[in-house]
Amino acid sequence: MSDITPAINGQGRFAFIQILRGVAAMLVVWSHLSGFWLLDVGKTSFLQTRWERWIVGPFHIFQNGGHLGVVIFFLISGYIITHTSLREDRPTFLVRRVFRIFPMLIVATAIAFGFFVLSLLTHTKLIGISGGSVLHWLSSLVLVDGFLPGGRAMDVTWTLVVELIFYTMTFALLGVSRIHPLRSVWIMLGIWVVLSVVSLDLGPIHRSANSEVALYVGFLIIGRVIYLVQQKLIAVVDALVAGGLALLLYCLFIEVAEPGFLIAPGGYRGMEPIVTYAFALIIFLAMMRLAPSTVVQPFKMLGDISYSLYLLHIPVGITVLNLLNAVGVPTDVNVIVAILASIGVAWITHHFVELPAQRLARRIRPTKRREEPSPEFR
């Protein structure tokens, strides 16, 4: 999900990002392929029971850990996109974001559609895939399906809409960001407030599946603020005020959208979302402070394939779960095989879709060295 340019390869000062990407990806995968699938079919497993007993329950982790992974992804994207945007011109930024998101999205949509057709033929339920007409699936290629009747073809793509909103704001504010980074944060906060109010109050958007996606842009803005203060491009006090306001506004918006959501038990096994948000921030800041110098396996591999894995784990993993469940494979074995199958397919698409697309983007817009931020940034 989050954008990592070739220069940020998991070594050095950004190694913590690569580790977090791997952790976040596996949290989402485990949430869906273990917790939610088992809940849907009315089964349990030794591993899931222990996960709930030792992690989900004591730490009140919302949605079996999946929501925690998503919020960490958002913080990563805010951090890394800010880093790359300060070193790219507008055409380069645009080309690289388009080639980062859409080639893999197109392939993942085609794969998901194939598994959706298979589920219809085998009379199995493919949770997380809403289906719809061919036209609806085509609309999902440009991420507008969530604004249309029938909802998203693939449920996980809501996070890509969040990312694209942040990319668009970053693109629009590239000039301001390099000269007045703090001012760019405040402008971005203002735009986000307007978008959030409109999405919650404008009838057609409010009634769509994507009615609340704009609210989550606040977490990417927080990731941006963390990067800017870490690089000493804004003052600590300014960062605390801007980041704190973004968090406060998110709480306000989500309470307007879903009263009681933050502190009321809900989601998977009745855990409060506000605790998960606190953990996401703590985990991100702790890893940044720890600043590991290298990334070891399997975190490097999982970080590399995290985008492919995020998009494909539901169609691939749920299909494997359904097929193995039909022949009586034990649930723990079933879940492990489904996760490994998802990782395997994601590894293939990462190497044969993502990497070639990124190489093509670099040929179209070669990297040009930019000077380090000048004193007026500070």
Descriptors:
disordered C terminus; mainly alpha; single chain; 378 residues
Figure out the total of helices: 15
Overall tally of structural domains: 1
Q: Write down the overall geometry.
A: globular
Could you tell me the strand content as a percent range? under 5%
Radius of gyration from the alpha-carbon trace, in angstroms: 20 Å
Order of helices and strands: HHHHHHHHHHHHHHH
Tally of extended strands?
Answer: 0
Terminal residue distance: 30 Å
Derived structural class: mainly alpha
Spans with pLDDT under 50 lasting ≥5 residues?
A: 1-11, 370-378
Query: Would you tell me the overall average pLDDT?
Result: 91
* Sheet having the most strands: none
Q: What can you tell me about this protein's structure?
A:
It is a single chain. This protein is mainly α and 378 residues long. It has one domain. It is built from 15 helices and no strands. Helix 1 packs antiparallel against helix 3. The radius of gyration is 20 Å and the shape is globular. It starts with 14 loop residues before the first helix and ends in a 14-residue tail after the last helix. The relative contact order is 0.18. Mean pLDDT is 91; it is low at 1-11 and 370-378.
Quick summary:
This protein is mainly alpha-helical. The protein contains 15 helices and no strands. It is globular, with a radius of gyration of 20 Å.
Element layout with pairings:
Blueprint: H1 15-41, H2 46-59, H3 66-85, H4 90-122, H5 134-140, H6 158-172, H7 174-179, H8 181-201, H9 203-206, H10 217-230, H11 236-257, H12 273-290, H13 299-304, H14 306-326, H15 331-364
Helix pairs in contact: 1-3, 1-14, 1-15, 3-6, 3-10, 3-12, 4-14, 4-15, 8-10, 8-11, 10-11, 14-15
